[in-house]
Amino acid sequence: IPLAGVIGNPVGHSLSPGLHGHWLRRYGIRGHYVPLQVGEDDLAQVIRALPRMGFVGANVTIPHKRAVLDIADQASDRAILMGAANTLTFLEDGRILADNTDAHGFLANLRQEAPDWDPSRGPACVLGAGGAARAVIAALLEAGVPEVILTNRTRPKAEALRADLGTRVRVLDWVQAGNAVDEAETVVNTTSLGMEGQPELRVPLDGLRPGKLVTDIVYAPLRTRLLRVAEDEGCTTVDGLGMLLHQAVPGFERWFGKRPEVDREARDAVL
Ligand code: ATR
C-alpha cells in the first residue's frame, strides 16, 4: 500500500491530509496520507528512511521547504528558482526528487476560477515579498503579464526578489501600495495581512475598478477584506484556498497515478 505524507513542524494545522485523504477515497485508491511532524535535526534522516517504509512521496511545509533542497538528490529548475521545494517524489531506484508546485498552483487556480482573466492586459501588483511572493511573481511573469509592480513593507526584500526574477519587476515603496493597486489589472496579496489573528491589510483600495482581477493567498478567512472590497467594486475575485488545492495536484498524480479534480467536493473536504 503506497504511503505519502506532509512533513512540517508543526504540522497539525496542515490541510493536506484532509485533501489527499479525500482524493484517495474518491478515486478508490488503496493508500494513506499522513502528517509527519519532524524537527530540523531529524529531517535528513527521516526523509532518507521514508522510501524504505513504503512512502512514494511527501509534501514539505514550514519550516523545511528550503532545507529539503539539499537533502534531495535532484531538484527541478522550478524548485531551484524558488529556493524551496514543497513536493518530494521517491523513485524506485532510491533517488529523491524535489519540486516546487506553488507557482503551478497559483496559476491553475486563476485559470480555473477566472477563465476570462487575460494576464497580458496590464501590469500586476504583488503586495508582499516573502516566499509565497516569489512563486506568485514567477507564475505571473510566465503567464505573460507585461510588468509586476512589487511592494513590500521591508523594501530590500522586494529588491532582492527583483534581482532574482528580472527586469519586468518594478519595486515601489510600501507607502505607494495604493498607486500599485491603481495601475494594475491584476492584484495579488501575498502578505499575511488579513489572516485570522493578523492585522488587516490597510492599503488604499480606491484603485480597484470593474474588470480587474483580485486574488489573495490568505484563505482563513476565505473572504478577506481585500476580496470583499474588490467584489463590491465589481472586480473578479479568486480566494486563496484554490492555490493550496491546486499545488497538491502534481504530487498526488505522480505518487498515486491519477490526476485529481479540484472541485467543490475537494474544497469541502478541507473546510
Ligand atoms: P510567506 O512565505 O507566506 O510569504 P513570509 O515570508 O513570512 O511568508 O512573508 C510574509 C509577508 O507578509 C512579507 O512580505 C511581510 O512583509 P516584511 O517582508 O516587511 O516582513 C508581510 N507582512 C507581515 N506582516 C506585515 C505587516 N504588519 N505589515 C506589512 N507587511 C506585513
Structure description:
The model has no long low-confidence stretch (mean pLDDT 97). The longest helix is centred in the middle third of the chain and has 13 residues, at 131-143. Helix 1 crosses helix 12 and helix 5 (102-113) packs across helix 6 (131-143). Strand 7, helix 6 and strand 8 form a beta-alpha-beta unit. This protein is an alpha/beta fold and 271 residues long. A 6-stranded mixed β-sheet has the order 2-1-3-5-6-4. It has 2 domains: 3-101 and 248-270, Leucine Dehydrogenase, chain A, domain 1 (Rossmann fold), CATH 3.40.50; 103-243, NAD(P)-binding Rossmann-like Domain (Rossmann fold, 3-Layer(aba) Sandwich), CATH 3.40.50. The chain contains 12 helices and 12 strands. 2'-monophosphoadenosine-5'-diphosphate binds next to helix 6.
Bound molecule types: 2'-monophosphoadenosine-5'-diphosphate
Number of helices: 12
The CATH architecture classification of the largest domain is 3-Layer(aba) Sandwich
Helices and strands, in order, run as EHEHEHEHEEHEHEHEHEEHEHHH
Report the portion of residues in β strands.
Answer: 15-25%
**Beta strands, count:** 12
Gyration radius, to the nearest Å? 19 Å
**Share of helix, binned:** 25-40%
The overall pLDDT, averaged over residues, is 97
CATH class of the largest domain: Alpha Beta
Coarse morphology: globular
**What is the topology, as strand order, of the major beta sheet?**
2-1-3-5-6-4
